Amino acid sequence: MANASYYKRTYGEKKVNDHYMLGLKLKSAGIFVVCVILALICILPLWIVIVNATRSNAEIVNGLSLIPSTNFGENISNLIAKEVYKPGIGFKNSAIITVGATVLSVFFSSLTAYGLVVYDFKLKDAAWTFILAVLMVPVQVSGVGFIKFMISLGLYNTFVPLIVPAIAAPGVVFFMRQYMKSSFPLEIVEAARIDGCSEFRTFFTIGLPMIKPAVAVQAIFAFIANWNNFYTPSMIIVSEDKKTLPMMMSALTADRVKTDYGIVYVGIALSIVPLIVVYLILSKYIIAGVALGGVKE
Fold this sequence. Notes:
mainly alpha; flat; 297 residues
């Protein structure tokens, strides 16, 4: 304020206002340029995949291009002709696993986070510490034990080990709890209890609608993670009719000498279509969900 008063006395109020508006315009222009650059960085890999899906193997090997070619139809025909790639089976299996795992993960994680925020019990802090500890354990550490356990239960080569364990998703619980701690008013829950509303009804009719942005964000992340998951299905699934899309995509590049990259890029382009659709449907919740969920306690 002192500097502003000094400049006003020295140069006049109009000139100070002009300088201030110029500074705002330059700042806005700088932010706009940075956003455009970040958008291009995000879009460029996707565009390269789409372009390479229209190019032949020889064109892809010879170098990078941002201009589409004319081999898209031929690449699709060659892809469908591949014995290791069965799009109908791959999409169906991936959809069953992804939708099931996403629904279970988001729902039960929301329920767990709701319990940690709304209820006050003795082992509340211990439970939260345990969830954080599990979050830090890599999946690869428990891989061998997980396979042996599934074999002993008779669930090897089934979809059950790929769907049901999604109930325990500590990362989703962490995000949902942080979101609720920052934006969920406990007074509403107390009011619902006074009106005679049951606990589960309170969660379904009041809790879930209020945390809908966070649910949508985590649904997107969980859908992408499960759709692209290759590690766990490759350990559990052995039958050809139960393989997921990432497993079939991996088979296309098994023989690097005979790999047709035009076919590979067509497969990649087709496999990301569901991800784009889900993102476009739920993307309006991302900014609100991330902004509120990322607030520290």
